[in-house]
Amino acid sequence: MRVILLFVFILLSSTCLFPQTNGSSWKEVKTRKQGSVKLYWFQNSPYGYTDEAKRLRGMEVEIMEGFKRNLQKKYQIELTYKWIQEGTFNEVLNRVQNDSQTGVFGLAGFSITEERRKLMKFSPSYMADIAVLVSTNDIPIARSKQELLKYMEGATALTAKGTVLEKELNEIRETNQVNFTIEHTGASMELIHMLAMSKKSFGYLSLPVYLLSLDKGFTKLNRQNYFTMRYEGRGIGLPMSSDWDEPLNEYFDSEDFITDSESIIASYVNMDLYRFIETFNPQNEVGLLNKEKDIQQVQLRLQQLELRDKTQKQLYLIITITLVSILLIIIVVLFRRQASSHRLLKEQKAEIEAQSDQIIAINSNLEATIQERTRELANKNKALEEYAFITAHKLRAPLANILGLVSMIDKTKLREEEKEVVSNLKDSAQKLDEIIHSVMNAIDQPIDPPPQSQK
Questions:
Q1: For residue 14, what pLDDT band results from cuts at 50, 70 and 90?
Q2: Which residue, 78, 124, 190, 205, shows the most beta carbons closer than 10 Å to its own?
Q3: What is the mean pLDDT of residues 152-181?
């Protein structure tokens, strides 16, 4: 018994502390002030999709985020979303129609119809729901319904499985007894891409998606003037057992939704297109043709501006290339001149080096010659010194004898004539002695060698 009570206690505690992610009812969430719901969606721009940064975006995604903020503001409720991606529209539709849980929402750009109201609930419409028939370029724009049925014969119709548009195509085929095949595709943008790559094909496109793709230049399809369909509008789906339609309807009727919806729709659809779609009557074909013409004229102006911009860019590119080419030519000319000057300097340097080597060689020869001449002069000088020394010493001894004899004779008694002769002899001997002394002094002083050549 205690074990059973403990198990029940743990189960109740875990339920209170950790809310289940299966999808809480509005009644539970309103009481607990917190809870979680499941939101099924699939890639279907602009209603719900992931962008290049892998962020979940789309009109219905942002509407549900606004709904969460509104609950927090009005009821102080912390609501948690569990986003569950499905592969196709039909899978989301089956989830909503067959899920018995109350905390479930379907985001697929549902068309609100009386037939579907028998199987599921819807939020109020947030945007008009009009579908137009488009075809590949090889199917001309028909001038009558019978002509269009003739073009459909043997063609291929593309549509998402489980949509009201698939039902419309089947009804056209059966009512008018026209033979065409139906192939299933994904969401609207995938249908556009498939039609762009196909031949003799057609299908229904949501008018907002068609005009949006036309406005952005995505599509080159032919819109046919017949079998245009208008439904109650686009809405978010809920299971028949859900009680979340109460707060969802409150949000759609609130001032917050009016503010949120305008900013949300403006983020994905041109507001001028949105207002046109909201007031469009499928019987007013002229109004739609005028709108298409306006969009095409805008596209034409944009293309002209783009062409002009492209032409200006090409002109700037040509000018830039021309200036760069001129600059390159100037650089090449300067480089060649520099190369020529460098070559001339190199030749002059080689010539100077050759002249320098020649001068060095001449200096070397001159130095050798000077050294040789210096040695010869030194030898001659030495021989001359020896000769002068020997000569001077040999002359000095006889001269000393002559001076001695003259002195002795001068002391004797001589006649006047004899004295005069002796006096002249003495003067001459003394002069000769002075000359010998000068020669000896010159021999005793060193002789400076000749200067060396400068290299």
A1: very low
A2: 205
A3: 94
Residue 286 has pLDDT above 60, yes or no: no
Distance CA 78, CA 44 (A): 28
Do residues 160 and 90 touch, judged by C-beta distance below 8 A? yes
Q: With beta carbons less than 8 A apart as the criterion, state whether 42 and 87 touch.
A: yes
Mean pLDDT, range 99-103, rounded to an integer = 83
pLDDT at 19 over 50: no
- In the chain, where the domains are located: 15-283, 324-444
15-283: CATH topology is: D-Maltodextrin-Binding Protein; domain 2 (3.40.190)
What's the confidence (pLDDT) of residue 77? 96
pTM: 0.58
- Give the integer Cα–Cα distance in Å for 356 and 351: 8
The residue type found at 406 is V
Share of the chain above pLDDT 70, in %: 82
Facing residues of 111 across strands?
234
pLDDT at 280 (0 to 100): 66
CA–CA dist 352, 242 (Å, integer) = 106
What is the CB neighbour count within 10 angstroms for residue 44? 24
Q: Which of 85-99, 187-201, 417-431 has the lowest mean pLDDT?
A: 417-431
pLDDT at 146: 95
pLDDT surpasses 60 at 3: no
Buried b (16+ CB within 10 A) or exposed e, 62-85: bbbebbbebbeeeeebebebeeee
Give the 3-state DSSP-derived string for the chain, with helices as H, strands as E and coil as C: CHHHHHHHHHHHHHHHHCCCCCCCCHHHHHHHCEEEEEEEECCECCCEEECCCCCEECHHHHHHHHHHHHHHHHHCCEEEEEEEECCCHHHHHHHHHHCCCCCEEEEEEEECCHHHHCCCEECCCCEEEEEEEEECCCCCCCCCHHHHHHHHCCCEEEEECCCHHHHHHHHHHHHHCCCCEEEEECCHHHHHHHHHCCCCEEEEEEHHHHHHHHHCCCCCCEECCCCCEEEEEEEEEECCCCCCHHHHHHHHCCHHHHHHHHHHHHHHCCHHHHHHHHHCCCCCHHHHHHHHHHHHHHHHHHHHHHHHHHHHHHHHHHHHHHHHHHHHHHHHHHHHHHHHHHHHHHHHHHHHHHHHHHHHHHHHHHHHHHHHHHHHHHHHHHHHHHHHHHHHHHHHHHHHHHHHHHHHHHHCCCCHHHHHHHHHHHHHHHHHHHHHHHHHHHHHCCCCCCCCCCC
